[in-house]
């Protein structure tokens, strides 16, 4: 897809990877603006095209008492305020056909969660809004199978499609990234590597998903070397107390050093072309 179709996506002439980053869930306006301000400053400094990410609600939870959101409209309005305040595009995930039309009024990119990417009606509803659609590869799907999800978007007269790898589940409690999938999926759309969700450790007996944030740079470096178009990372200034997915999020204080290293690697990769 042509990334210039995404409103307010800057630094496209830098030949860098682009970044989708932000908290797992919108917990409130102050936290969202605080995270966005920091990431915008870093990505502007490093000439990285940036999209702010935040879930307006969390529908896929292990336990009934898990945090699901602060209210749909309230969270969506915060996403719109982030976009307008910092002049950056925004992305959120949707879970129902009705969510597509509602969220499209507030954000620039609609994301289909991995567990729902085979739901034809949901993918088509997202595509028909005209917004860019980011398809998360199911943990249970091969890279080759994602061509069919991407085709559903294009058959709905929308060529703006991304495909995001978030690891494949082997066994019950671990995710593995098969980097052979990146060049395979590049045939079907713009590719993204979801670094932090690929390091989740689901199905814990506590009902709270674990993670390996110590491996974030390892996975991200490998993604850049493999030639992925974009990176996806969830980040927070206090992951230990985040209301969702804190166990695998990157601490905001570590983001600049990580991205600086990744930009240096990208420059080397560009020189090998």
UniProtKB/TrEMBL annotation:
| GO CC aspect terms | cytoplasm
Q: Note the superkingdom of the native organism.
A: Bacteria
Pathway it works in: Carbohydrate biosynthesis; 3-deoxy-D-manno-octulosonate biosynthesis; 3-deoxy-D-manno-octulosonate from D-ribulose 5-phosphate: step 2/3; Bacterial outer membrane biogenesis; lipopolysaccharide biosynthesis
Kindly list the GO molecular function terms attached to this UniProt entry.
Answer: 3-deoxy-8-phosphooctulonate synthase activity
Q: Which UniProt keywords apply?
A: Cytoplasm, Transferase
What are the GO BP annotations of this UniProt entry? lipopolysaccharide biosynthetic process
Reaction(s) catalysed (UniProt annotation): D-arabinose 5-phosphate + phosphoenolpyruvate + H2O = 3-deoxy-alpha-D-manno-2-octulosonate-8-phosphate + phosphate
Task: Report the Pfam families cross-referenced here.
Answer: DAHP_synth_1
The EC number(s) this enzyme carries = 2.5.1.55
Q: Where in the cell is it found?
A: Cytoplasm
Kindly give the SUPFAM superfamilies that the UniProt entry links to this protein: Aldolase
- Looking at the record, the residues that make up the DAHP synthetase I/KDSA domain are 15-262
Stated family: Belongs to the KdsA family.
Q: Which protein is depicted?
A: 3-deoxy-8-phosphooctulonate synthase
Q: What is the lineage of its organism?
A: Bacteria, Pseudomonadati, Bacteroidota, Flavobacteriia, Flavobacteriales
